[in-house]
Specification:
two-stranded antiparallel sheet, alpha/beta, 2 domains, Alkaline Phosphatase, subunit A, 34% helix
Length: 450
């Protein structure tokens, strides 16, 4: 006999810890499920989708597996060894509309603007910019009302929204992958403090500022303001949930502490006034800190959709901390010089090391019979393949996560070169419950992914 009237959960999935203008979402707890009836209810953890973008292409010989089938981790992907079974590498996928198509130079601007839209951006450095809606924002418009934030846009390099940044293309193109509409790029947030306050501040903008000011005056953590509410909740929870809540709150406090350390270091170092005060001086720590907050936002179901630009396309950031004092963009124009190619690979591997940190955290968070990573679909890649050639075919694309069990991972899938990257996005949108007949230059769906 089927269960029709399942017992109500002990606490609502949307329960928030409250205190003095501070709201804190909670991770998925057993107490949020119908009592003793999780298996009968068929209720599953929500799916989450994120897109992580890196600039200037890859050193492809160290990226592309030689064979299809069971995944072989190439040198650049070695940091991902602990999450190998959750990875799918796809080759042959292409963003045709990032090519010049008669518009001349500007491959970096087109790379990022077309990455999630599949649209050829209008060549202009004025206000008449034009691309198309991006996959993430299409999902945010359709299902974003199910969470506190429809989407989250993160980055580690500030970008301008006007001016000429690449051969006559507006800076808005090279510093945005999320597009709410064909003329509306969505700026990403680079300041960890601003992201932290957005996630754990008050429900109103004024409350957020007031809450932070009050915490600073009393030298208190955000957790201090919700502590009383948390103690009341703990009394209702089982031992497993109590431990899970303790781990979560410890994680929040650790992130808050690292944001504070970055701010103190910046003040002591008297950094430029236009630099966000919470941005760590160490680039790797900046990526990890933003990644930690993305994980928390997914874990607590604050949002199910995110984008994360590790750097803007065309970025010439140097990586002296890993022995590459030259700029990334300069190195990417390697002219087949093996020394420069080696430096590009160093940078690629460095990026992958930070991403591995984030994916391992997701894998460590249990959700029902699986993990948070199992219930995610994280696309990592670039809109340029070889930085020297500026080509936009056979792109370096990695998918992490199993889409709630709908994606068979641990594989390398080779598609015919020229297959639209947007075909992948349609597959992911389907799994998110967002049906779209087309997106940009899509021609269908990647059925081999199932």
């Amino acid at each position: 006999m089927e269960a029709t009237n399942l017992p109500e959960p002990l606490i609502s999935r949307r329960t928030l810890l409250r205190g003095a203008g501070t709201l804190m979402a909670l991770p998925m707890l057993e107490a949020m499920m119908p009592l003793g009836a999780l298996a009968q209810s068929g209720k599953k953890a929500p799916l989450r989708m994120a897109f992580m973008f890196v600039p200037n292409g890859m050193h492809m010989p160290a990226w592309t597996p030689a064979k299809e089938g069971a995944l072989e981790l190439m040198p650049t992907m070695q940091p991902l060894a602990k999450v190998k079974d959750s990875l799918t590498v796809m080759t042959g996928l292409t963003q045709h509309n990032a090519f010049a198509l008669g518009d001349g130079g500007g491959d970096h601007a087109r790379s990022s603007a077309a990455f999630l839209t599949g649209c050829h951006p209008r060549k202009t450095d004025g206000a008449d910019i034009k691309a198309g809606i991006s996959a993430d924002q299409l999902a945010a418009q359709r299902i974003g009302n199910n969470t506190r934030f429809p989407s989250l846009e993160l980055g580690c390099e500030r970008g301008a929204q006007a001016g000429n940044c690449d051969s006559g293309y507006s800076c808005a193109y090279s510093s945005s992958i999320a597009w709410r509409g064909e003329s509306t790029p969505v700026a990403h947030e680079v300041d960890p403090r601003a992201v932290f306050e957005r996630l754990f501040g008050g429900s109103e903008p004024g409350e957020t500022a007031e809450s932070r000011k009050k915490r600073e005056s009393y030298k208190k953590s955000v957790l201090d303001f919700v502590l009383e509410d948390a103690k009341g909740l703990q009394a209702k929870l089982g031992v497993h949930d109590q431990n899970k809540l303790d781990e979560y709150m410890t994680g929040v406090r650790e992130i808050e502490r690292r944001v504070e350390m970055a701010e103190k270091a910046n003040v002591a170092g008297k950094l430029a006034a236009d630099r966000p005060t919470g941005v760590p001086s160490d680039f790797g720590e900046h990526i990890r800190l933003m990644g930690d907050m993305l994980v928390l936002a997914f874990q607590t179901d604050m949002t199910r959709i995110a984008t994360f630009m590790l750097a803007n396309d065309g970025s010439n950031r140097n990586y002296s901390t890993i022995g590459v004092p030259e700029g990334h963009h300069d190195c990417s124009h390697h002219g087949r010089d093996p020394i420069k190619q080696g430096k590009v690979q160093q940078i690629n591997t460095y990026h992958m090391t930070q991403v591995a940190y984030m994916l391992e955290k997701m894998q460590a968070i249990k959700e029902g019979d699986g993990t948070l990573l199992d219930n995610c679909m994280i696309v990592y890649g670039a809109g340029i393949s070889d930085g020297d050639r500026h080509n936009h075919d056979d792109l370096p694309i990695l998918l992490a996560g199993k889409g709630g069990g709908t994606i068979k991972a641990g594989r390398h899938i080779r598609y015919q070169n020229g297959t639209p990257l947007t075909n992948l996005f349609l597959c992911l949108l389907d799994r998110m419950g967002v049906h779209a007949d087309t997106l940009g230059d899509s021609s269908g769906r990647l059925e081999q992914l199932i």
